[in-house]
Amino acid sequence: MDHEPVLTGPQWVLDRRRFLLAALGGAGVLVLGACTSSGGGPRTAPATVRLPNAALGFPTPFAANGGPGYSQMILLYDTLLWKDGTGELLPWLAETVTSSDDHQTYTFELRDGVTWSDGEPLTVEDVVFTFEYYAAQEFLSPAVLVQPPRGIAGVRATGPKAVEVTLERPLVTFPEQVAGALPIIPRHVWSSIDDPGAALDMAVLVGTGPYRLESYGGDGGPLLYTARDDYFLGAPYVQRIEMNAIDDFFSALLSGATDAARGFGLRSDILAPFEGDDAYDTITEQGTWSQVLYWNLGKEGPLSDPRFRHACAMAIDQDDLVSRLAAGRGLPGNPGFLSPENEFFAPVPRYEFDVAGANALLNSAGYRHGNGGVRQDANGAPLSFELRFDNAQVELGEIVIAALRQIGVELRSTPVEVGPELFGNKLFGGYDMVVLPFPGPAPGGPNADPDVLRQIFSSRVPPSLTGATNYVNPAFDELAEEQRLTFDEGERQAIVAEMQTMVAEDIPVLPLYYPDATLIFRKQVLDEWYFTPGQYPTSEDHKHLFVTGDESGTDIRRR
Amino acid sequence: MSAQTSAPVEVAREAEPGPDQATEPERRRRSPLLVVGLGLLGLVLLVALIASLLTPHDPRAISGAALEEPSAGHPLGTDVPGRDIFAQLVFGARTSLTVATVSASLAMAGALLFGVLPALVGGAADSVSNRLMVFLLALPGLPLLVLVGSLAGESHLVVIVLIGFLGIAPNARILRSQTLALVQRGFISASQGFGGGPLYVLRRHLVPALGPLILVGFVNWAGLAVALEAGLAFLGLGDPSGISWGLMLNRALAQPSIYFSPMWTWWVLPAGLAVTFTVLAFTFVGVALEPSFNPRWLRSS
User: Cβ contacts (< 8 Å) between A391 and chain B: which residues?
Assistant: First the structure.
């Protein structure tokens, strides 16, 4: 079988240009360091980076919760491939990857000299075991970001360092969403553990990752990481990472209690103190996150009537949401679901804000005004529904309620805690309408690989926290399958555009707005922050930065 | 019946303050704490009553842009959805006073039922009810309130009832001991000897005799209820769609880095001051009344 190289290893070979650049960069760092240090020797790489994130779950692949939990866990573990700041997939635990011509078989050649944090060497058996262990899990908490991968026909060792993964069908998303997301776990630790979600002992935290966990203050508590000097890429650039539960990120950043802080749709007065100060720098990205309105299509009546949903969409002024809730820093929702910043975004007609039009639509659909201004359906039942939302998003909930009141739809507000109460009801269909943060505890956001559309809208995908409940469109399901088997990007783009059109017409869910993500950081501590394009599996990740200190490649920046 | 009751009434009159305490009402009237407390309470009551005259805005309705600065149209600006903050402040007085009066009434009614009545009946009823009160006193009030508040969710009524419920045991203990002291006095035994049942004695003799104590308990619990309700709402455990000072504080402080902006001065401060002054007003009144009515104070004087 002919194999074509997907990624080849020698990214770290030092050619003359790189050497000169590195030498210049190093000299620059030394000079700058000498200028900024207050009497000691030249400044070195950041000894410590402090972040305002408390532990979310326990940092094993099976007990870490959501995106933040994943990014805390992945500092202790590694994947076969990993992304850098340019969005390129890099060989990580694998030195090379090749795929067969039919994209159905991938062969990973592991690096030499990779050791687990307990000193044992990484073997191909560990990789095979990882796939088998995941496959054997019948149930992982839905809050665990990376769930057992589907569509894998077999995994076997084909040499002392080679692992071959065979897929049931060629999947365009396999390198990023499986090889680039699935943490490799040690067989000698996990083979004796039957219930991985309940393994909450520090002794199980054995990974090949760049850091060791020195202390863990319980779920919601602080985390302290120290770099492994024996890491296979070399001693990580950032030597120590402290994560602490901090309530007010930006006050903490100003007061020096943290070195970076991230927020969405920030007000001008929050940004102001940092904009005028050379000690800080700011990066912003659009469309990484959204608030999404879901209708429960499993319920008979108006909720499963697209005309009703169209009218709801027309009654909500999405530009106004951006201005009220994101201080004007954001984008209005795209009914085609992907963010306008996604490279697969295809423009679809928006539901323009038009209360009169929405009322006319409901009139023509037979929803007549009843008592108290609340409309009724053909059976005389009032258009009165429960709206659940995250209690940190009460204002959004209130605006949606006020918006739909204008068209005679009554929503009873139920703010609930983010977590089991909000997502549990969503998962099991115990709701009428719900507003959820997206991606929430799911991998990939509105900027991620467009396979996210299949994961949300295809009725062939099992119900998920963020899925469109009971939405069934066989034509969409067909396209959703087709796009992930399509390796030609232009062709895939066309399929995905069609999928967006269908979703926009049916609107089983409606992204309300995408607030801009802004990261503000203290330059003196670490000066090269970036958002990884696509941000799969999670937008909170900075592992590549902490290891290399750089935006691209696997070379570790000189200290 | 009227012939039977005349004697105890005479005896009851004997129990009223003696000549050396005759100046007490004047002393009370002169107490600056009482004046300030009643003045503040009067102000809050007035605001609550004429709330709709003070502002043209519905506190729940979106009436402006998001986070507007104070202006003639919105004296305290607007919150994130664009609702008038001043309207929330004045209508919040209604919530606070409702919680205060209803909770304190429930607490005192419960205290009468579980403190005074069993003490009159005596025997097993008193012993069981006393144990029950001791048990209730041992319950950690605030954690219980937080727990029930979080389970009750949106129901404002549950919070009010719970705050009232928590007030039963401490007030029942005070009223019971005073009842036991009163029962020793002649007029109660006389009334009982003439055939007065426990409820009759409670209504005819004890409630008037305990009145001042009930008033002090009521005022003190009302003040606490305002603080507890605001505290629960601040923690996000109250009625999320309600209008209350605690909820205003909750929403204001949920704004990231609110102290970066001057808006805390027209959002956090007025709501915080409103809670503070109302609780203080009840406390002043309670403290001013206590020396004249609380038996412990009377004994020491």
Answer: 236, 240
